[in-house]
Amino acid sequence: MSSITEVARRAGVSIATASRVVAEVDYPVSPATRARVLEAARALDYVPNALARGLQKSRIPVVGVIVHDITDPYFSEVVRGVEDAAAKGGYLVITCSSDRDPRREASYVRLLRSMRASAVIFAGSGIDDPELTEELARHFAGLRANGGAVVHLSPYADGTPEVGVQNEDGAAAMIDALVQMGHHQIAYLAAPRQLFFARERLAGYRRGMKAAGLEVDERLVVHRGLDAAAGVKGVDALLDGGMGFTALFCSTDLVALGAMRRLRELGISVPGQVSVAGFDDISFAEMTSPRLSTVRLPMRELGARGFAHAVNLMAGKTLMAETLPHEVVLRDSTAPPPHTPARS
Q1: Could you state, in order of their start, the residue ranges of all structural domains in the chain?
Q2: Which 3 state secondary structure label does DSSP give 18?
Q3: 302, 165 in Cβ contact below 8 A?
Q4: Taking the model in full, what pTM does it have?
């Protein structure tokens, strides 16, 4: 790879001038000189050393996005939003899947800090782990001290996200929509308790039930995972418990899709016998049969706004937390209740 010295020699300018031109720094230079430098860089196939430039500024143009599982369509959409925004600013995005492992999450943050990354964006919910919280707090302080930014897109141990979504309000709104259809026996497949976003969505379920004057039967609240397999296991747990329900609200769309598959395997019609609703509105929600009713979140916008927030923080701006809206989307998987389901 050619050096800036070779570019300067070919263009007939000083190394400092050549460096400022290729770095697109606001520096007074004649159009002719600028053209010579850029032509020399093109001819020599010169690529600026981002690492060297970053070391001069105490950080490199890299943004680390920590997700729980990159195969989850929710995170794929959020990361795409970050990438679209970051590309316009000349930043490289590195995606790190933690698999909801606190130790792995901490190791990613340590690595990104050692690389002098410009920002770390947490796309997934915080994990209730005091040891992890303490370690992350130290790394956050170090990142910020070097002019970097830390942005959360979901609730975490130390506070509300810098850019977030309406988890509780969205869940309460879906319960209201199901009640308006005539459902009174509404089961809920909740996410693991140690995830802070799961607590918000569960609180929304409880709030929605209370607002409708309905008692929450704890036997209808089942805590499982966040994928389709959790939906399968959740349905089995509910039916094995012998509790009747006419609607099933799930903490994520993937859980809802797994639940619909299991209900179909058991000969229970959706929505003929049980209405099913999810949360997030991933791309698969509209492609399944029946099409899934869900709470829509602006996932790409969430990622883009998270990156914009990071840029503003790096510029030293004081920002207010931002919350993006939700939307209840009713499709074919929900309908008025006919009767209580039973295992075939």
Answers
A1: 4-48, 57-165+299-326, 167-296
A2: helix
A3: yes
A4: 0.82
Write phi, then psi, for 97 (nearest 5 degrees).
-95, 120
Task: Give 55-85 pLDDT, tens digit per residue.
Answer: 445 678 999 999 999 999 999 999 999 999 9
Q: What is the pLDDT of residue 266?
A: 96
pLDDT for 159 beyond 80: no
Beta partners for 295?
A: 328
Spell out a b/e string for 243-269, using b for 16 or more CB atoms within 10 Å of the CB, else e.
eebbbbbbbbbbbbbbbbbbbeeeebe
Residue for token digits 């050393």? 49
Q: Which CATH superfamily is domain 4-48 in?
A: lambda repressor-like DNA-binding domains (1.10.260.40)
Residue-level length of the chain: 344
Contacting residues for 211 by C-beta, under 8 A, at least 6 apart: 172, 175, 176
What value does the mean pLDDT of the chain take? 90
DSSP for 148-195, please give it.
Answer: -EEEESS-BTTB--SEEE-HHHHHHHHHHHHHHHT---EEEEEPPTTB
pLDDT above 90: residue 279: yes
User: What does R_g of the chain's alpha carbons equal in angstroms?
Assistant: 25
Report helix, strand or coil for 258: helix
Domain 57-165+299-326 class in CATH:
alpha beta
Whether 4-48 and 167-296 share one fold: the answer is no
- CATH of region 167-296, choose from 1.10.3720.10, 3.40.50.2300, 3.90.110.10, 2.40.50.140: 3.40.50.2300
